[in-house]
Amino acid sequence: MPSLRPTPRRARLGVSLMFFTNGVLLAALLPRYPEIKSALDLSGTGFGTTVVAFPLGAILTASLAGKVIRALGARRVTAVGSVLLAASTWLAGTSGSTWAFFAALLVAGALDAVVDAAQNVHGVAVERWGRRSMINSFHALWSLGAACGGAVGAWAAASDVAIGTQMLVNGTVWSVVAVLASVLAGVPDAQTRPTLAGEEVPGDRPRARAWRLLLPLVLLAICGTLVEDIANNWTVLFLQTETSAPEVVAGLGLTVVLAAQFVGRLVGDPMTDRWGRASVARAGGVLIALGMLVVVLPVPHPLTLVGLALTGFGSATLVPAAFAAADRVPGLPAGTGIALLGWLMRLGFLVTSPVVGVVSDAVDLRAAMLLPLVAGVVAAVLAHRVRTSGAALEGPAADPGPAPGGSSTAGEAGAVTTQEER
User: Fold this and answer.
1) What is the rounded CA–CA span in Å between residue 226 and residue 371?
2) Range of the domain at 58
3) Could you tell me the pTM of the whole model?
4) Region Disordered: which residues (predicted)?
5) In contact, 114 and 18? CB cutoff 8 Å
6) Is residue 104 part of a domain?
7) What sign results for the dihedral spanned by CA atoms 335, 340, 345, 348?
8) Number of domains forming the structure of the chain
9) pLDDT, tens digit, 9 for 90 and up, residues 83-125
10) What's the CA gap between 258 and 261, in Å, rounded?
11) How buried is 81 (Cβ within 10 angstroms: 0-12 exposed, 13-18 middle, 19+ buried)?
12) CA torsion 320→81→97→236, rounded to 10°?
């Protein structure tokens, strides 16, 4: 794919735009979910079962992402996938039946899984080239994009802008940005490495040791994505139905979660450098649990928004840390660790919304919102397992790769206990 002369700064800008674009494309539709639910006359269970199409589509394609990325290149996959993703979100917003809505979300989820893996693979390559921790800031830009997309969607809903018009303009603008981002994000070919520490690993099938290193990262990431999934699909409905919040305030609930997540990811790299990855993950789990405890209590709307902010901030670094670690699991071809983690992580999405829908119909949505509280507790308990993954959790300081114009030695990929593992 064409690119300008690669530089670490330019590549970082390109990857940042990739993540921002992905966040905008997906979040712009979410504040319109109550409108779509009403138009399709869906119950809580019916809506929860329908929106599960997105994670289902992701699960169907995520395991193939590594092969697609190696065949076509991460930049090309991100650009083309983003354009197609924009089209599928427009189709979801303009669907006239439950099955059409389900099908559009299924395609969107399938595309997003591959785009997500591709942008993370390329982001880690840029991080390696620049010899600085960047993965949290990339995910921060995704959160900022999602917050902006959610805010625009909430404004469009409050202003009675047609969903089709909103999604068409949104998709067109950010498709252009996605292509530009891929042009900017070029890196030297030397930054694409087949395996960690020079190991020759045929095929994509992970060995037993790789699974032992990967599974704790998957569980930790699921705790983070569960919070995101419930925030995306249920926060607006919860605020409207359980707290009688006006439409604008309800739309702000999602924006608050995503904005707080953005702030958490923005400071995630320095926090990890100072206190270590396990400590940051443990604190994140505690904040998720405390935040959701506030949310489920019958408190005024401002306090509910504070609880949502704590939840978003707490979940901020769980997924980026897991992706960065998965890329360094020994014995896996390039991109396979990230693709496998993304695939398994999305299994949590498959059950989250249906469970919330069933509980909301059987009890109420307030009771269903206890699920992310439990996820926060689990994340805090699992945080120490991050330490046990050894080499898989080394950051750029332990495995910097070749610097621009320099070279690396075999020792740089060795297993060393670092500040990040505490």
Assistant:
1) 8
2) 8-189+198-395+417-421
3) 0.71
4) 393-422
5) no
6) yes
7) positive
8) 1
9) 999 999 999 999 889 999 999 999 999 999 999 989 988 888 8
10) 5
11) buried
12) 30
